[in-house]
# Entry
Amino acid sequence: MYDLFGSFSEYYYFILALQALCVFHSYRKGNQQKWIWIIVFLPLVGSLVYIFTEIVKRNHVSDIQEKAVAFVNPGGRIKNLEKNFKFTSTFTNRVALADAYLESGMFEKAIELYEPALTGIFHDNEHILKQLIHAYYQLDRMDEVVRTGLKITNAMNFSKSHTNLLYALALEKTGNTSLVEKQYQAMNHRFSNYEARYNYGCFLLRQSRIEEAGLIFFDIVEESERMSRREKGGVTLWIDKSKEEISKLVK
# Structure
């Protein structure tokens, strides 16, 4: 009986806490008249419905709306971020504006904001370093891609990222061929990283390692035959390119 009562007591206080949270949130949002009776008279159900409708769903809708506005009018979003940064030049506002510049192809402006942010506790910030690699690469500043890439080669998930592909491409373009293959090998996993693996095959061709390159291309094509149309998605380009390379090799 004691255990049963204890369990009921914990359940009761949990619902009270949930109610209090919902009532407080409702009061802060100014919509308490609409929800207060539902939360009070249907404690658990009312609270859960409130959380889903007013917190979870609304945040999701706001996020979708923000992305839609950014797609339709990217200049408007950038202007708002510029105002925010001018009003308060915090690290968060700086990076948000730099990210927007990068997404819009304004690479020089993005770099001008990213580089000064790499100070103090943010001197090795992984997000900024990755974004800088993308910006430098787009501007054909390969030496800076390599220099920046060296700082985060040991970061979690870097080896499997698209940023690592840019780093590998920059290594080859700057003559650091001894380091290139290590990066490609880290991305050479079945049913993933098709762009990187295609580029790995091309790198092997340039090294006159024809048979190894052919195996890379063949694996990509062979895997594609087991994939649905949806799974192929954005990797169709690399599958088709791999087929082209195979056709050249067998002539």
Notes: The chain has a mean pLDDT of 85. The two ends are 82 Å apart (CA to CA).
